[in-house]
Amino acid sequence: MNVTFFGDLAVEFEKSVKETKESNIAIIIASAKVNQHEGVICLNNYPATRFYINPHHHSVKKLHERMLDPAYCVKPEEHVPETTPPLFSVEDIKNLTKDFIERKVRCQITVKRVDEKSNWYDNVCTTCGYEVTIVEGRYRCVVCSRNVPFPDKRFRLGTLCNDATGLIAIVFPDDEIQRITGKNAFDIEEELADEKIFPPVLKDFEKKEYVITLIIGERNVSKISNIYNATDIADPVEVLGNHSPAEAEDVKLTDDIPPMETPCTKTAPKGSPTTAASTNKVRSRDKKTDISYALEDNVPIGKCKIPKTDKRSRVHAFVPYNLADQFEAIIEIGNLYLLTNFTVKEYTTDDKFRCLRKHVQIVFNEETQLDILHENVVNVENCCFDFFEISELHTLSKQNTYLTDVVGIMEDHEPIRKIKNRNDVIQSQFVFNITDGSSSVRVTFWDDFAKHLADSLKQATDFPVILIIGCARVTTWGEQVVVTNVGATNFYINCNHRSVVELRKLLLEKKITSKSLSTENRSAVQFYKLESIPRLGPDHVERQIFCKVKITNFQENKIWFKTVCTSCYATTVKLNSEDTCQGCQRVVQYPDKQFQLVAMAFDDTGYILIIMEDREVKKLVGKSVFQIGEEGTKDEEFPPILNNILGKVYTLKIRINSENVLKKSNYYLVTDIMEGLYLEGNQQQ
Ligand SMILES: [Zn+2]
Ligand SMILES: [Zn+2]
């Protein structure tokens, strides 16, 4: 059982153990506190706790005796270091007996030919890693019984290799191909101009010599299959050092292999080609099985099952509350770390909202160390998801064991709003739909997370926005399936994940259309002259436009900030000289202070009044309201630093609201500001 001592007792204990001469240490811990930590029982010290090392006590004597009794004592499993597998010739490998099943052997071979007739990758399930099949034109994992909208791609590289003693068919493992080429299957697919071409980088394995570690399968020994799976691929020079090429050169690398040795024959297709309805989800390449390239025992290598690897996968790590501050300071998303001394814990049925569909998670403890690695020693993708299809989300809405990753195109939506919930608490709520072209789902985000998304969307440049929601909770509201946020949920706006690239491509090719998607590219910079802005019609409500102005003066130079409620962000009012939020009906003791300036903006056609809020003013003066206050400016004084804004030329982004259009309000809200002139787009006169 786990014992954790703290403080002086821990120091004293460590010292005593070091001073002990005996190799077998028995310890009596008296008056320990029995605790539960992360669901595991452990002992801790209290002020009354004492320890005794190998004391003269009958219990200790008995314990020492019993430890020698094999019937009583279970030796902890010894860690056997992996020995280097034996090096065999190809001929020997083909004659291995069943003692070698599941064991590793090595061989030194030359890659004679790479199999170009089969697909060079498999589409695999993002949850379980097994190959997906095509059902009704969609990728489906039969193991997980669900659709996999964006399957992973894993290399499948069949090779024909030889040494002086014979020929052998070897399937190269995905992770080793990645390590050697420095690319994954997606990278290579992207580089290929024509999907019918076999990737040259994979062809580069040909005519080269390697020391390959194979794992011998039962099917190999029983001669059902003569295709061997490799686990490691190494350069002979770096492995064997004293390598002499003389032996290898004796091999005649001609194509005139005697019939008995002929490894590959072209055969007519055995079954009908995979029949998959052609949709935009499935590439034509997946159906290319008209010629199968078979090996001597008629196992077409194209049909050979590639073993799944547990490399390149994800695991959830949990940092307990008491350690959160310590680790939060170190962890930065996107960095690579070496993690040591952690606990691996199986999930229990009580563990809800799991980020991943795995049996175990990593739990940090007091001993856990996290060291940043500056060199990218392993090829880790920046972001990794396990997407579910939007049409299948309803199957997840009745459970709360797992969280879910979804990707979709944001449909037109209302801005974030504040609502009063049934407990009379004001909450921020952001409601919108996302679609993948065939189905759409309601998304409802709450409070800070909703605000964070709404703020981040202001920076988006590609429209419609393609949003990835990682670790979302799928639930129902009435009969409707709703995607919502919990603590672990995060979002990615127009990120460069392949799913986003693919959706964007389908949008451009007009394969996804929906009347609720903005057909117009709202990011196109549309500049307006000021005189035309008051004439904009209702179709411009909630639209953002650009204009180039000179800011000449502030309309009001007394009030330059507003106080807002720390719960609901509404502007507070003074009641009995106390800042009060009318929405929350409470005194806000330390309200937030945010800039709010009204200024006159001119161009050569006229002027408008603009409202600049906190983010925009901070951007211009580089200070917050609080910082200006700390520098000695009193709340009722107008800070001179703000006058620096005046007299300059700016490019403004303005959001037209319904007041502007319907009530002809002349106050326009600035949503972004930049000093100088932004590149000119279509000028609207
Ligand atoms: Zn699966
Ligand atoms: Zn409030």
Automatic annotation (TrEMBL):
Residues 262-285 are annotated as: Disordered. Residues 272-281 have a biased composition (Polar residues). It comes from the Eukaryota. Signal peptide: none annotated. InterPro entries: NA-bd_OB-fold. This is Replication factor A C-terminal domain-containing protein. It comes from Daucus carota subsp. sativus (Carrot). The lineage of its organism: Eukaryota, Viridiplantae, Streptophyta, Embryophyta, Tracheophyta.
